[in-house]
Structures are given as structure tokens and as C-alpha cells.
Amino acid sequence: ATPDTSPPATAPRGAALAEAARRVIPGGVNSATRDVGEPFAFTSAEGAYVVDADGRRYLDYHAAFGAILLGHNSPVVNDAVRAALRGHDLVGLGVSELEVRLAERVVELIPSAESMIATMSGSEAVAQAVRLSRAATGRAKIVKFQGGFHGWSDAVARNVISPAERAYGSDPLSHGILPAALDETLIAEFNDLDSVRALFDAHPGDVAAVILEPIPHNVGALVPTREFVEGLRALTLERGAVLIFDEVITGFRHSLGGYQQVVGVTPDLTTFGKGMANGYPVGGLAGRRDLMDHFDGRGGDVLLAGTFNGHPVGCAAAIATIDHLRANPDFYSRTFAHGDRIRAGLTEITAELGIVTQVTGFGGVFSMYFCAGPIHGYRDLLRNDNAAYVAFHRGMTERGVLMLPMSLKRNHVSGAHTDDDIDRTLETADVVLRELVA
Ligand code: PLP
């Protein structure tokens, strides 16, 4: 059928595009959380800014859910992609130089990485990590944490945002998942080692892996205690389970060696995606050689397949992003300083206005919970005033500072944000927060 994409004569372009999208794309978006009620449609992006179909310019902290690290349309990354395509597109036999060079960098930089596979997304990397852990241990169960999000694959698709009374219940993110797939997934509390130990005790010899976002940025930013992360390492070693750090958001963003380098705890497996290639599609799974060798087609027992795995566009973009970060370590000092300024500014503004908030985050990632502290784990977040959180993000977005208007969404400073951008962000926040209490 030929879709009718003609916009109503008087409608703004964005609204017309959104309407056309709803006719040919279910719900009008290609990923559920891209729909926040407003008809967003963007036509250009550069540095710290994105421009919508009606010419509105936004200072961007959404950063494509964290896939933008250096800034939009980074010339170094785009040039590397163009150069790669002058060589070849996808051939799909043997290996390309770009795949080797990317894996070499990851092995060199990431403490847990002795070898690496390249996927097309973070979800695929996680699905492979789960399957690999089960194959390597001969066990079925996976422990994940309440509030952690690890993509769309079956085993991890539960207990991201649950109402309090169902915090330990099954709340699959999707229908169509076999109950048996979720029954093998056990839920623990972040920053609560006893809750993990209790699951190991209740299921002796059955837990294949513990998977966590070392900072659960999918509920804003819960910062782990050192004892918790070290305790997880000791416990998984003691019980013979695989420890998986999902560094799809934290990897490369918080340090060249990932958050594992910051916290000084080395997992068995690490997943990557998002910012690693500054907006181009690539994911990765890296880890201990004896585990990763299960993927070795000559004698290994875990299937590694994917037509687009190791695609030259994603690999070239990832190499360029990593090399840029290596050559410009001030990326970290700048984004961290900007993150600190925003956190300090928001704390000051809300304190002055008498709004009870917990401003949190790490490095260039920041989040502001609307509740009293302290915030250690997911249960504390159930006190968050979701309506105020959304109203703040919506108010910022309406004034040209793009923050996803959904509760518990984090914000990302990129390498392209300037001091002036941070000033503008805090000035805008002052106006929005004043309106919130008015
Ligand atoms: N892991 C984490 C921590 C994520 O935040 C996400 C996506 O939001 C994923 C995995 C899934 O990655 P992708 O969306 O590339 O499949």
C-alpha cells in the first residue's frame, strides 16, 4: 500500500511527521520510550544541539539515551566512517581490519577484557552474555537488580520500573515472553549484598550469573558503595557464578576503562554499546578468555552469529571515538566539571526554593530525585515524586533544554557542552523550578 504522508496544510512539520509516522509505524516510533506524548521529530543535530522539524533548537542532554558522547555529528567520527566506506561496506567473510583494531583497543583499555565480540546493539551483547554464562556454568538462573535495564532480551526483561508492592513480583516489560524464561531471573536489591547472598543461598548451585549496571543509570543514578561492588566480586567468585558488568551506559563515558576501572573491581564479562561509537550502531561483549572462547567456532559451544556483527561503520566510529578520548583526556575533566557544576547549581537552586531534592549522578551524568534522602537503592526511589520529576524535565524541554520528560531518566553532558551551555542550563532550571513551586 502507498502510505499517505501528505501533511495537513496548516500543521507544523513535526506534528505532520508524527501523524504520518503513526499511520505506518506502530505507535509512531521505533523504540517505545521515544514516545513521550509530544510529536517530536528532529531534522538536524550538531555538537550539543539538536533542531526539530519546525526549526526549534534544543540544548541536548537526552543524547540519544546516552549514545552521544563527544557531541552530535562529531567530525572525527563522521570522517572515520566516510573513510571506512571508501574501503568497503559489509563483506561478511573472515575478518576486517577494523574489527581487529576495535577489539585490540577494548582489550588494551578495559580491565576485564581479554577478548571481545562486536554486536549491533547493547541488547544483543547482553543476550550473548547471559547465554554464555549459562553455557559456561551449566546453570540456569540469572540475578539482576530491581531498577536495572539491560535491553529487550527475554531473560532480563523484568523489574525495571515496578510499583512498590510488586518490587519482587514478575512485571515483564513485554507480553510474549515465556514465563519460564523469566522464572529463571531472580531479583535483588542494588547496594544490598545480603539480598544477593540470600538468592544464592535459596538456589544453591543454580545461579549462572549476576548482571548489573555498575551505576544503575536507568533509574537516574544510584551510586554503588565500594563494599557492595567488592562484595559482589567476592560472592560470585565464592559461588562459582559469572559477574557481568553492563557498561552500555557507563563504558567509555565514565572512564576509558569503564566504571570497573573507577571502582577497581574487575568483572568476568562486560557489555558495551551506546556511547562507544558516538551514535553509530555497535555493541560489544568482552571478558575472560576462557569464557569468551566458548564463542570460538572451532571447539566452542556457544553460537555467535550475526550478519551485521562487526559492521565497518560501527567499528570505524567506535575506533575514532576511543582514539579521540585517548588523545583528549580533558574530555573527562571537562564533562566531570560540567556535571559537578550542574549538580551544585541544581542543589543550590532547589535548596533556596525549599524543594526537597537529591541531586545525584557521576561525571557528566546527572539526575535530580524529588524526595528526601538518603538514596541507596531502588526502594528509596519509590519515594520520588514522579510528577515533579516529569514536570521539571518537561519545563526544561519547553524552554529549549532537552531532557526526556519521563520519570527517573538521567541526563548526559557531552564533550560538546560549553561553560555557556551550563550557565544557560542553570538559568533555565531556576525559571522552571520557580514555576514549579509558584
Ligand atoms: N544495557 C543498558 C544498561 C542500557 O541502558 C541499554 C539501553 O538502554 C541496553 C543495555 C540495551 O542497549 P540497546 O538499546 O543498544 O539494545
UniProtKB/TrEMBL annotation:
Keyword hit for Transferase: yes
InterPro entries for the chain: Aminotrans_3 (IPR005814), Aminotrans_3_PPA_site (IPR049704), PyrdxlP-dep_Trfase (IPR015424), PyrdxlP-dep_Trfase_major (IPR015421), PyrdxlP-dep_Trfase_small (IPR015422)
Keyword Ribonucleoprotein: no
GO biological process: antibiotic biosynthetic process
Chain segments carrying region Disordered: 1-15
Cofactor(s) required, per the database record: pyridoxal 5'-phosphate
Family: Belongs to the class-III pyridoxal-phosphate-dependent aminotransferase family.
Record-level Gene Ontology MF annotations: pyridoxal phosphate binding; transaminase activity
Pfam families found in the cross-reference section: Aminotran_3
Family annotation (PROSITE patterns): AA_TRANSFER_CLASS_3 (PS00600)
Protein origin, superkingdom: Bacteria
Protein name: Aspartate aminotransferase family protein
Keyword annotations: Aminotransferase, Antibiotic biosynthesis, Pyridoxal phosphate, Transferase
